[in-house]
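Budget justification note: compute hours in this period were largely spent on complex prediction jobs such as the one shown. Inputs:
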Amino acid sequence: DSGVTQTPKHLITATGQRVTLRCSPRSGDLSVYWYQQSLDQGLQFLIQYYNGEERAKGNILERFSAQQFPDLHSELNLSSLELGDSALYFCASSVGTGGWAQYFGPGTRLLVL
Amino acid sequence: LAKTTQPISMDSYEGQEVNITCSHNNIATNDYITWYQQFPSQGPRFIIQGYKTKVTNEVASLFIPADRKSSTLSLPRVSLSDTAVYYCLVGPAFPGSARQLTFGSGTQLTVLP
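Corresponding output:
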């Protein structure tokens, strides 16, 4: 158990819909990272927040957005969902802003039908 | 960003020592080297991190030559449960560096009985 929690574990929705994935980092960790992993794309970094502020952006689509709240939990919002958005979405946390050991949550499996 | 190159796959037998090498020719002065392990449908798990020379923990050793352009993850006496994908990452170590950590394709290690 990494100490990072993600909800929900599974999500099934339809194209065009919007969903919100939630992540609670390990106690004391200030950075939250979001990753997408699909079979054909591998593990893709989406975005990083550090203590409530966006710090780094990766391959995140404009239909996706994220935020980190004052209690340090984070949400990833996915809108106008497409079939290709079906993937595992992982959240990770770390103490610092980069290069430190990241601790990954169990992931949310999203299926868009 | 330091690009990493790893073998796509490796096979080994139970009880053997496995060495997985990662090339990172354009590693920056402030970059650390981090290795993760990932089992199917689970989040990556931090294994080890280092900056130079050798680092050892209860799970693995990490060897980094003086030029830091490569690193080798050493897994002693592997077992079937070590079958997983191993990722090498290179990224900044100090808070305030807003850079991405990029996961490459990883190395699929298969341990055979």
